[in-house]
Amino acid sequence: MLKKFIVTAALCTAPMSPVFAQADLICDQDGLKALEAEIAQIEDLQRKNRAEEALAAARTSFAANDIDACKLHMGEVTTAAKPLSDPL
After folding, report:
1. Is 43 helix (H, G, I), strand (E, B) or coil?
2. Which of these, 70, 76, 75, lies nearest to 27 by C-alpha position?
3. What's the pTM value of the predicted model, to 2 decimals?
4. Do residues 57 and 41 make contact, with C-beta atoms less than 8 angstroms apart?
5. Are 27 and 58 a contacting pair, CB within 8 Å?
């Protein structure tokens, strides 16, 4: 019973973590280059492709001067860069 509660709590809070991570992200050239370096270290091709797509969207948002969207996509990059863990 406790295990089910813990798993449920983890699954419910996982989508919120990128939102909190966005507060630390700075949408500028240096921030985008740092994410580029982070993506270069990803070995899993599926995660790498997802992160590269999010980085491209962040660059587009940055070019359009849409900082909120840029931070959102930068958060997606950091989420894609993290290895998926087994919740059980």
Report:
1. coil
2. 70
3. 0.68
4. no
5. yes
Query: Across the chain, which distance is largest between two alpha carbons, in Å?
Result: 49
Domain extents in the chain = 17-81
List pLDDT tens digits, range 13-32: 555 554 544 557 889 999 99
Secondary structure of residue 27 in the 3-state scheme: coil
Summarize pLDDT for 31-82 with one digit per residue, the tens. 999 999 999 999 999 999 999 999 999 999 999 999 999 999 999 999 988 8
**Closest alpha carbon to 62 in 30, 39, 86, 88:** 30
Contacts with 31 (C-beta within 8 Å, 6 or more apart), sequence order: 25, 74
